Amino acid sequence: MSRIEDHALIGDLQTAALVDRNGTADWLCLPRFDSAAMFTRLLGGPEHGHWTITPAPAPDAGDTDPPQAVRRRYRGNSLILETEWDTPDGTVRVTDFMPSTVGVRGDAPRLVRIVEGVHGRVPVRSVLRPRPGYGTVVPWIRAEGDRFAALAGPDALWLDAEPPTTDENSTLVSEFTVAAGDRVAFTLAWHPSHAGIPPLPDPRADLTATAAYWKDWTARCTYTGPDRDAVVRSLITLKALTYAPTGAMVAAPTTSLPEEIGGTRNWDYRYCWLRDSALAVTTLARNGYLDEARAWRAWLVRTVGGDLDRLQIMYGIAGERDLAERELAHLPGYENSRPVRVGNGAAAQLQLDVFGEVIDALDTARRHGLEPCPRAAALQVRLVELLERRWREPDEGIWEVRGPRRHFVHSKVMAWVAFDRVIRLIESGDATGPAERWRGLRDEIHREVCERGFDSVRGTFTQSYGSAELDAALLLIPVVGFLPPGDPRVTGTVEAVRRELSTPDGFVLRYPTAGPGAGVDGLAGEEGAFLACSFWMADALALTGRPDEARELFEKLLALRNDVGLLAEEWGPQRRRQVGNFPQGFSHWALVDSAVALARGTGAFVPGQRAHLPSAVQRSLRPAVVA
Ligand SMILES: OC[C@H]1O[C@H](O[C@H]2O[C@H](CO)[C@@H](O)[C@H](O)[C@H]2O)[C@H](O)[C@@H](O)[C@@H]1O
C-alpha cells in the first residue's frame, strides 16, 4: 500500500485522480469529485479498481511489487505529472494529466497517460481495472473497433489505447516496448452510457492545451516574495479543488483517508464547506485570482440565498443539500482504517464561525478589486440578521465536534468578524442595514468573549467559555483583528497554545485528543498535528514579533510536503507520515498565507499584495511589518 504522501494529484477542475509512485492511479471519481469512484484501490485492494502503468516487472516479480519510480515532478507550474523510471533496459517516462478546462474537457472527462521512451528499449505494462461504484461493479467490457467500452449502468468508460490491448477477465492489459523517442498514448474517457460513442480523443492536442491552460493561469499569480514555488504549487492545488461549472470548491478530493492510521476518524471531504471554500477563496483573491472569488460568490448566492432559515455549513458542489453520511462496508479502508464514509453528517451542524469566514472572504475580495454585487451584499446583510438571532447559542464550532455543543470562543470571535465586516460594507455604501445596532452588538460580543472566554489566571483565551482546554483556532484572534498582536491576552494565548498543543517535533494539534483534556470532539482515538494550525502558529509568531521562530517553524512545515509539494490535512508525529484527506485545501491556503505573512515580516517586497489585515491590526503593527 502506498503512503498517502506517495500520491500526486491530477485533475480537470471537475474531478481529480491520485497517482502513486508506482504509476498507479488508485483514486478516481467520475464525472464529478463526489461521484462514486471508478478506482478505489486507495481504500481497498486492486480488486476495487485502479490503472497501473509501469515498466514491466521482471518475470519473477509479483504483480504487487512493481518497480519504484525514481523521479517524479509536475511539468513546470502545471498539474501535468511526469514520472520517470530508470531500469536496466533504459529510462521511461509516463506523463499523466486530465485536460483541465471545461472547454477542453468538453463532454467526455478523461484521464490521459502518455508513455515515452527516454533512452534504451523498455518493456512496459498497462493494467486497467475499472470498477465503478467504489469497487462494487465489474463492468461489461466490449470492443468497439479499436476502442474498448466498459459499461456499468449509467457509466461508460472508453479506452483508446495506441498499443495492442486485450481484455483479461474484465481487465484491459497492454504490453509493449518503448524505444527512445517513442510516444504511446492512452485516453480513458467517461461518457454517459446512454449517450453513444464519445468523440475520438486527441491526446497530444489535449496535452498542448492543458499545458497552455496552466501556464496562463499561473502567470496571473501576483505573489513575488520568498518561497514562490511552494506558494504557486499550493495555489495550483487550490485551483484543482475548484469545481469549474459552479464555482464551488471541495475541501479535498478524497474520502476517508484516516487522521489516525487504523483509526475511525475518516471523513468525506468531497463537498463544499462554506468555511473551507471561503478561506481558500480569500487566499486566491489576495494572490491575483479574482475570477475564482467571483465564481465562488455566484455559487454562494445561488446556493444559500433562497432559504437562509435552512442554512447549512456545507453543500454539494452544485449546491445539493442532502449529504447524508453512510458507511461503505465492503471497503477495508486505507491501511484498514474503517469505516469508509461517504456523505458527511456535519452538514446538519450549527457552526457559527462560518458567518465570519464567508463575510470576511467577500470583504477581502471586494478590497482586492472584485466588483460590487448587490445580491451578495444583500445576502451578507441577511446572514448577519440571522446571526443576530443565533450568536448566543452554543455550537459545534470550526472543528465540527461530534460531542455536545459549546460556547466555542473561536465561534464567537468569528461572529464578531461577521458584524465588523458587514458594518464596513454598510459604511462603504454598498449595503444598507442597521449599522448602529450592529456596532452595539459587535461591542457586546467583544466584551463577552473577553470576559467569559479568557482565563486571567493562565493568561490565555480558552477553547470554550469556562473550559480549561485550549484550541489552536485561537491563534486567529490577532489575524482577524479581534485584538492587536501586541495585546498581552494575544501573546499569552500564543504562548499557551505553543506550550500545551505542540507535538514533540514542534507542530500544533487543533486541541487535545489525548490526556485529561481529551473528549471534547466526542470521537474515539487520536489524531496528528493539524497542518493549518501549525501554519497559523508560524503566522502568530511572526505577528507577535518572533520572526526567527516563525521562519524556523515554516521551514519545518515546508519540509513535510511530499516530493511534488502536496500536503494532507495532518502530520502523524509518531509514524512521521502525512495523514488525513489529501491534498487538503486548508493546509495549502494556510501555507500561502504564512509565506505572505513571513514575507511581510521581513519587509520583502510583495507586489500586488495589498495589506489584508483589518485596519485595527495594521495600526497596531510596526510600519515595516505591513506591505
Ligand atoms: O473532527 C471531526 C470532524 O472532522 C471533519 O471536519 C474537518 O474537516 C472539515 C473539512 O475540511 C473542516 O471544515 C473542519 O474544520 C475539520 O474539523 C469532518 O468533516 C466532520 O464530519 C467531523 O465531525
Automatic annotation (TrEMBL):
<keyword id="KW-0378">Hydrolase</keyword>
<dbReference type="GO" id="GO:0016787">
    <property type="term" value="F:hydrolase activity"/>
</dbReference>
<feature type="domain" description="Trehalase-like N-terminal">
    <location>
        <begin position="3"/>
        <end position="158"/>
    </location>
</feature>
<dbReference type="InterPro" id="IPR011613">
    <property type="entry name" value="GH15-like"/>
</dbReference>
<dbReference type="Pfam" id="PF00723">
    <property type="entry name" value="Glyco_hydro_15"/>
</dbReference>
<dbReference type="InterPro" id="IPR008928">
    <property type="entry name" value="6-hairpin_glycosidase_sf"/>
</dbReference>
<feature type="domain" description="GH15-like">
    <location>
        <begin position="226"/>
        <end position="594"/>
    </location>
</feature>
<protein>
    <submittedName>
        <fullName>Glycoside hydrolase family 15 protein</fullName>
    </submittedName>
</protein>
<dbReference type="InterPro" id="IPR012341">
    <property type="entry name" value="6hp_glycosidase-like_sf"/>
</dbReference>
<dbReference type="InterPro" id="IPR045582">
    <property type="entry name" value="Trehalase-like_N"/>
</dbReference>
<dbReference type="Pfam" id="PF19291">
    <property type="entry name" value="TREH_N"/>
</dbReference>
